[in-house]
Amino acid sequence: MDIRALNFNSIHLKYTGIVGTGGLGSGKFFELNGNDTLGREESRSGHFKDIKDYCKQHIILHYIKVLLGNTFTVVPVGKIGNDETGNGLFIEMSEVGFDLQFVEKVPGVSTLFSFCFYYPDGSGGNFTTDNSASALVDAGCVNQALPAIKKLAKKGIVMAAPEVPLDARYRLLKLGRQHQLFCAGSFTSEEIVHAYKGGVIELMDLIAINMDEAAALSGLALAQTAPALIVSETIIKLLKKNKNLLISITGGKGGSWCWDGSVINHFQAISSMVKSTAGAGDAFFSGLLCGIATELSFFEAQQLATLVAGLSVTSPHTIHKEICRQSLYDLAQSTAFEFSPKIFSLLNM
User: Suppose 102 and one of 77, 115, 291, 344 were both cysteines; which one would form an S-S bond, judging by CB atoms 3.0 to 4.6 Å apart?
Assistant: First the structure.
């Protein structure tokens, strides 16, 4: 891929680089034969699906690098195993243009890996390694990236994503706050209450979560509560910790809700030929950060994020390698939605 062809050369960037942390890994998808729930001691036939899986940090940073180009620095912080999976990911990230000086290959430890299984009706689950290289990412690893953080300072973003320990993400956000970078992050449903109580929200400028994570934080039952109520209660709760926080909540087919400090804006999801929704939330988060870096308003960034997520689901893979400015522009042109003229200008340069 020629990153130079995708660069926003004539766009003034408010931010010129990002330092991120989160999971770096891969996975495989296996479809079982038969819809009956797999028994505890049962053997079942099936087949692997031709799907490439990636972890959260890689997904988010990939789209940022592709869309913002070679003048925008992308610096992941993480660990992979010195194994076939890790070495393959390292090559892919290098080819896209990541600065990999803070991605460590750990001998004798496996790269983060997820084995996802599906029944023919589309339901399923997954198994994820809990002793992978990503689990070893700690505050010390993040501290090594301090020179990159200092170099970006007010012109930089830090991004903390799941699949590495919370302590490492807390440290990255703390360093980002100390050196006046824009601080963004996301959390899983299992950890968001702990993050809320642990002083992490106060360090952030932007939190990007989905409806399930919002329900976990608000304490409302997802299946029994209107999405708008979950959104409003979650925003109220988050603002008690950080009154200046920008908030994004995605709801799948229901669209997204964003709080810009004054009002809540709802934007519908794009109706696409869906092949997989895996990675769509991370694609949305990535689109938000791209918009913020290019000085779009927060609600305009929400529109760009909607485009990135809407196109991401048309690929079976969790990174859609064909996403670029032109493909996003074409998608925006083909929908009946009213996108800001700035979106078209941005994508058509």
Answer: 77
CA dist., res. 262 & res. 264, Å (int): 7
Q: Which two tokens stand for residue 88?
A: 């393959």
pLDDT band (50, 70, 90) for residue 27: confident
Contact 35, 128 (CB under 8 A): no
Closest-CA residue to 19 (of 144, 203, 134, 157): 157
Helix (H) / strand (E) element for 250: namely: strand 246-250
- Beta carbons of 343 and 300 less than 8 angstroms apart: yes
Contact 326, 347 (CB under 8 A): yes
Output 277-280 pairs: Cβ under 8 A, ≥24 positions apart: 277/252, 277/313, 278/53, 278/318, 279/54, 279/59, 279/312, 279/317, 279/318, 279/319, 280/250, 280/252, 280/309, 280/312, 280/313
| Cα angle 169, 171, 175; round to 5 | 120
First CA to last CA across the chain, in angstroms?
18
Distances 37 to 31, 196, 299 between C-alpha atoms, Å? 13, 36, 43
Element (H, E) at 241: helix 227-241
20 neighbors 159 (Cβ within 8 angstroms): yes
5 pLDDT higher than 50: no
Residue 317 neighbours by CB distance under 10 Å:
18
Residue 229 to residues 62, 189, 285: CA-CA distances in angstroms?
33, 18, 22
Contact 74, 156 (CB under 8 A): no
Q: Residues of the chain with pLDDT > 90: what percent?
A: 78
Q: What is the pLDDT of residue 11?
A: 61
